């Protein structure tokens, strides 16, 4: 979910340099930049990384059958080495090849002791990709306020499923988290590691939990940041977060009201929220004209959702500028600032097709979704009063209602005695804080580190909290979990 609506414009290249044929199961290492235009690869090369490709079975039930490729990067430890740390940025469907050079303040410390491994999961990024050739980022999409707008959202999701069937049907049965965890163990073996350490954000916490369940005893130190509830993860993974996002919107409105002289959105929380409500009433009948783009009922809640994910002043200020642009567009066309314009360019074009395709394939492959569109409509209607801004998004229908193949395995039940440090922000608007307790119960050797009061999805190396960062680094260095759960102040 962390990368659910990210603005990274993803490539889907699976090309590799010409090298001698390796032994089976060997990683083919090479420089990271694929060509002169590959900025991500150039940045990895500049950081001293090497990139590689590993062939894995498409279908682990037929290990000698068709192979696909998973792509990874490695920045070797610069000091006294503890082991290899695999990093997953979340998603589902989020690329992680560049993870070793992201979050530079904490990775500069962690990278003294670990080989930092970035891995694009199967179907994602430079690994053999799934790409449904989507004309825009169609999931998630708001259901709007009426039967007619909901019918449009249903048609959009059915179209996604149809496109994925046509473009990637042969791969869809094998795109799921359990197979990604199996790939991860192939990577562990190919790296020559008896055990690996793991850092997973958001969906990456679920991937990490599944790996612990399927491969007990093969991890050293594990950090799961922004924990997902493994009992409810799947196509409806954000169904329960509407109330938290309504609360997050109110908190942001209070912040913006205290800065009316800067943003001009009102002097009280009520006044700011009134402008948000005016936006919703307007798009129920007329689209907003933002530069070359049009924003209607399906897209408006996504803009708010994507903007209000971080309670630090800079992020809240960027959200206020975006929302001010939207408010002005009620009275006529406006030209967007670079942030809003870039978002719309990405979402309303094929630029995010590969990311959304992989996200959809993984979620639909992990857990079945209700097939009856009326289930979602009734759910939205039952919660409109309490979730007026986000319920039509978080409770909406997905392509999984029309998916051509059923999940090939049941959802993974997490029940083990492995060890992990679970990191959770108390007011995370994406993965609810209550998830930490659920995951702690499933991984009985784990401990929870709580960042009190924070409204942020992703803590370690992302929020700038010295206490939380210090405790995670101390664990990664020592391998010793705290005796009890711990907290840090915001």
UniProtKB/TrEMBL annotation:
Record's protein name: Alpha/beta fold hydrolase
Annotated PANTHER family: 2-SUCCINYL-6-HYDROXY-2,4-CYCLOHEXADIENE-1-CARBOXYLATE SYNTHASE, AB HYDROLASE-1 DOMAIN-CONTAINING PROTEIN-RELATED
Domain of life per record: Bacteria
Secretion signal, residue range per the UniProt entry: 1-20
Pfam family, one: Abhydrolase_4
Organism (species): Kribbella sandramycini
Family (UniProt): Belongs to the peptidase S33 family.
Entry keywords, A to Z: Hydrolase, Signal
Any one Gene Ontology molecular-function term assigned to this protein's record: hydrolase activity
Peptidase S33 tripeptidyl aminopeptidase-like C-terminal domain: residues covered: 398-488
InterPro entries in the record: AB_hydrolase_fold, Pept_S33_TAP-like_C, Serine_prot/Carboxylest_S33
